[in-house]
Amino acid sequence: MTDAARLFAAVDLPDAVRSDLAAWARAAIGHRDDLRRVPADALHLTLAFIGDRALEEAGEIGEAVTEAAEGEVPLRIGAPLWLSPRHPHVLTVAIEDPTGALTALHTRVEAALAARCGLVPERRTFRPHVTVARVRRGARIRPVPLEAPPPSRFNAVAVTLYRSRLSPGGSQYEALARAPLARPG
Ligand code: ATP
Ligand code: MG
Q: What is the DSSP letter of 67?
């Protein structure tokens, strides 16, 4: 049996956007026993969850993901969103895609992964978001309305294939392949 790796493709956000989102989450929910905030350096926008693959497939998967990266992807911070809304497992912030470039990127990444790596595309509509906190195992929380983060416009920085290692304090991500997007910042 070869080594397996848990893989996902994500859009990287500018450092300033990640620290602003982390600061907003700290102010909005504070320190709680039932929620675990995601550290600023781990915040990301998932494009495709690939799941467990043989480590030797990672090179090909990385090529499929990075070849789909192209052009500028302007984004905006949207509203806070508990998912699922009635029985939350995570607190997220929606990401708005005013030009449709993010949706187009998502479509290209899924198509490349389907064609080259046998990924079955998700049936549900792509709803871009950044997870800022996770409900701790066994906790049940009330999805209270939260004040929105300050408005912000920025360009996506890169598309990255990550390996995720599950760990008790929150999964650790390792970048395996990365392609920059135009005009980051
Ligand atoms: P943890 O599971 O330790 O709370 P995590 O969810 O960030 O942390 P992973 O479960 O490895 O770590 O997930 C990596 C990324 O893929 C995250 O953005 C996560 O939301 C997303 N993801 C995980 N499982 C799925 C899934 N079944 N469908 C869609 N996206 C998923
Ligand atoms: Mg998870």
A: H
Q: Which ligand is nearest to the CA of 137?
A: 1
From the CA of 167, how far away is ligand 1's center (Å)? 12
**What's the pLDDT tens digit per position in 29-68?**
999 999 999 999 999 999 999 999 999 999 999 999 999 9
**Which neighbouring-strand residues pair with 82?**
91
Query: In terms of DSSP bridges, do strands 153-155 and 74-83 run parallel, antiparallel, or are they unpaired?
Result: antiparallel
Residues at CB less than 6 angstroms from ligand 1: 6, 8, 46, 49, 131, 134, 164, 166, 170-171
Q: Is residue 10 part of a domain?
A: no
Query: Encoding tokens for residue 99?
Result: 């030009």
CB 182 within 8 A of CB 87: no
The range of the structural domain enclosing residue 107 comes to 21-180
Q: Which ligand is the nearest neighbour of the Cα of 122?
A: 1
Contact partners, residue 6, CB within 8 Å, separation at least 6: 51, 52, 163, 164, 165, 166
Write the DSSP string, 18-35.
HHHHHHHHHHHH-S-SSE
Indicate the number of domains in the chain: 1
